[in-house]
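Worked example 3 (structure in, sequence out).
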């Protein structure tokens, strides 16, 4: 690695100080991409940190129900906000610790995405508890079991018990549904998705435990502080009169603008003509998204991970534009054939009397359609070159007359003489005999090519043929490979298509060999980049399988946790499915390719959708209002929390739009921003309308 760094430093110096004006140099080394990603990661830490800092500031400021500027330090909940954020971080660290103890390797993708999602869920639940606590403390007299003579501690205990009775089941259903959703999502085939799902499930589990313990304790302490008119953060300072200008109304309950607008807003969208418009518009959007999904591009171009000023970015562009020959690839033939048998030779070779569908012939034909197969040209077959090598008597094969060992064809020592390779009976001696094949194949693979004997196999095939010598020095060939070259590959689509056709050609060769020989042998392709692009061959199936597992898990547990409330369960899962499909539609519109990163984000969109809908669904199911008023009552209870707790908390991700690299801007701004907005409009517009229709259907059915 050190010499590569010296090489890079040398070329940087040459490019900056020594090269002529008419010379343009593009360069790269094996370590270059890793180095540049490390450099970019350090640079990207700034916008990512800024976005999280803005989120923290927003949560700190907006968590309290502040009535007036002069009561800001009393009504604010800065310490609760800081404590809640610490709880979220602690839950993530606990998840990472559990996986570390279990020796599960984490990916950078999981570590980048998890804080965003867990913070969204955690902050939403804290907003829900704070807002419910705020509403209940002014309605204590409405409870039959409340006594005005309660001591402060008894009243606090009573208030918090009522708060948890109201929001605890909703938090439980939402949290455990998401935990189950991600746990089942760990059955996916993508390693990145598996580690993300496991870490998310464990982190959410710890988060729920911490919220119903540590956060409740923080809220209890903060309730005592605010009841005594003590200033937030500096609790030793007490204000005797909360509102100096109007002390009689200092205990007037405060309702935020979002809380006040929920009732008129919900009544407006539940008018019959608005419901029709909402259903039609969302149905059209859903149909359009479904039609766009098949056109989403698959893959991840290397250039997206690099900034435009990177020397590696320049190098990759130069490779794509200037080179006409792409990376090498190999068709690997596993052991099982007897290469000294002419019938087995015929399924491999490409010269006279070989099969029309032999391995070499199929590779050659594939190279003739390089615009389709992305195979530029095939190299010579070692088997055909060996046949020619044995036929060049007096030019190639030499042996030591004293001990029968190998001599180079250029060795003119007195003890080295030319071989007399026995010919086989097959095809009038066109090929060496079986014993001669086994004896002289090691000689061929050690012979250096020269002007006189250009068929020597040392340079081209020495590492391509694995053989074992028996006790008599005869070679039995086992595994071998045949090298070819791809065309110049520039985009993810090119790489994926190249891998796809390499596997198709390998399957065709395997079938032909098995048909002609009856041997259970296999041919498979290999290239340095295949390990990165093989996953995209099954990308669609794996993506929908991952989402399907998550949806099934969410449906089953939501159904169980809701007491088999089929109406609300169907509404939540259907809305979540719509959110995922519409986010995929946005992916096509906004040029977001489908890969492991976007697959993880799609699973996050499913979790966000469940979070948007489950609290409304629970409030709807437990509402004591008349059937026609239950949707309005549910929105009045938790609608404002969805806006302040989830939606506005995640708005600071717009900072990532100014990211240093395209990969952050595409997958962590465009996609996060899209899933938050799509989840918001479905949770706040479509979901109440769907509940209204389902409620009307249930009412007509029961009547």
């Amino acid at each position: 690695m050190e010499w590569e760094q010296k090489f890079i430093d040398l070329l940087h110096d040459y490019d900056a100080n020594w090269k002529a004006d008419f010379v343009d140099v593009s360069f790269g080394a094996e370590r270059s991409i890793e180095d540049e990603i490390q450099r970019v990661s350090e640079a990207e830490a700034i916008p990512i940190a800024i976005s999280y800092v803005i989120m923290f500031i927003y949560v700190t400021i907006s968590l309290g129900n502040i009535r007036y500027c002069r009561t800001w330090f009393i009504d604010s909940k800065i310490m609760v906000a800081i404590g809640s954020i610490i709880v979220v971080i602690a839950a993530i660290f606990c998840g990472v610790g559990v996986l570390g103890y279990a020796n599960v390797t984490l990916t950078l993708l999981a570590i980048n995405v998890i804080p965003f999602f867990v913070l969204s869920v955690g902050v939403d639940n804290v907003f829900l508890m704070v807002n419910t606590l705020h509403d209940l403390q002014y309605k204590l007299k409405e409870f039959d079991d409340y006594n005005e003579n309660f001591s402060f501690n008894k009243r606090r205990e009573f208030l918090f018990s009522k708060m948890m009775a109201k929001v605890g089941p909703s938090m439980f259903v939402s949290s455990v549904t998401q935990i189950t959703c991600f746990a089942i999502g760990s059955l996916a085939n993508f390693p990145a998705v598996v580690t993300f799902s496991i870490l998310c499930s464990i982190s959410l589990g710890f988060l729920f435990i911490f919220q119903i313990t540590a956060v409740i304790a923080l809220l209890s302490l903060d309730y005592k502080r605010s009841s005594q008119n003590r200033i937030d953060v500096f609790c030793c300072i007490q204000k005797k009169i909360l509102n100096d200008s109007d002390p009689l109304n200092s205990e007037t309950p405060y309702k935020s603008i979002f809380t006040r607008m929920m009732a008129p807003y919900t009544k407006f969208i539940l008018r019959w003509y608005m419901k029709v418009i909402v259903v039609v518009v969302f149905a059209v959007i859903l149909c359009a998204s479904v039609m766009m999904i098949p056109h989403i591009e698959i893959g991840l171009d290397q250039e997206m991970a690099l900034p435009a000023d990177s020397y590696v970015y320049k190098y990759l562009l130069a490779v794509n534009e200037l080179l006409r020959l792409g990376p090498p690839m190999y068709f690997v033939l596993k052991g099982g054939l007897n290469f000294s048998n002419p019938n087995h030779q015929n399924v491999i070779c490409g010269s006279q009397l070989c099969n029309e569908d032999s391995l070499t012939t199929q590779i050659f034909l594939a190279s003739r359609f390089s615009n389709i197969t992305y195979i530029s040209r095939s190299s010579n077959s070692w088997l055909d070159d060996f046949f020619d090598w044995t036929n060049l008597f007096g030019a190639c094969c030499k042996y030591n007359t004293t001990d029968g060992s190998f001599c180079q064809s250029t060795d003119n020592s007195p003890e080295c003489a030319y071989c007399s390779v026995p010919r086989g009976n097959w095809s009038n001696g066109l090929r060496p005999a079986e014993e001669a094949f086994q004896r002289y194949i090691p000689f061929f693979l050690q012979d250096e090519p020269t002007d006189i004997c250009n068929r020597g196999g040392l340079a081209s095939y020495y590492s391509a043929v694995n053989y074992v010598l028996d006790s008599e020095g005869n070679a039995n060939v086992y595994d071998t490979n045949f090298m070819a070259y791809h065309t110049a590959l520039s985009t993810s689509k090119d790489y994926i298509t190249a891998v796809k056709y390499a596997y198709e050609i390998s399957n065709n060769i395997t079938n032909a060999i098995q048909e002609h020989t009856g041997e259970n042998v296999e041919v498979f392709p290999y290239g340095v980049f295949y390990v990165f692009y093989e996953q995209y061959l099954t990308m669609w199936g794996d993506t929908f399988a991952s989402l399907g597992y998550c949806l099934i898990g969410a449906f089953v547990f939501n159904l169980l946790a809701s007491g088999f409330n089929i109406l609300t369960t169907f509404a939540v899962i259907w809305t979540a499915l719509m959110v995922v499909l519409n986010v995929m539609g946005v992916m096509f519109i906004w040029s977001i390719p489908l890969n492991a990163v976007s697959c993880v984000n799609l699973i996050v969109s499913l979790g966000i959708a469940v979070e948007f809908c489950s609290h409304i669904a629970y409030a709807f199911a437990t509402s004591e209002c008349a059937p026609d008023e239950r949707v309005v009552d549910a929105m009045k209870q938790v609608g404002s929390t969805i806006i302040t707790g989830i939606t506005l908390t995640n708005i600071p991700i717009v900072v990532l739009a100014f990211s240093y690299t395209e990969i952050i801007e595409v997958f962590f701004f465009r996609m996060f921003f899209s899933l938050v907005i799509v989840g918001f409009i479905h949770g706040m517009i479509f979901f109440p309308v769907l509940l209204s229709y389902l409620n009307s259907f249930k009412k007509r059915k029961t009547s």
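Notes: The first helix runs from residue 2 to 18. The chain has three domains: 1-29, 31-303+537-702, 324-487+491-527.
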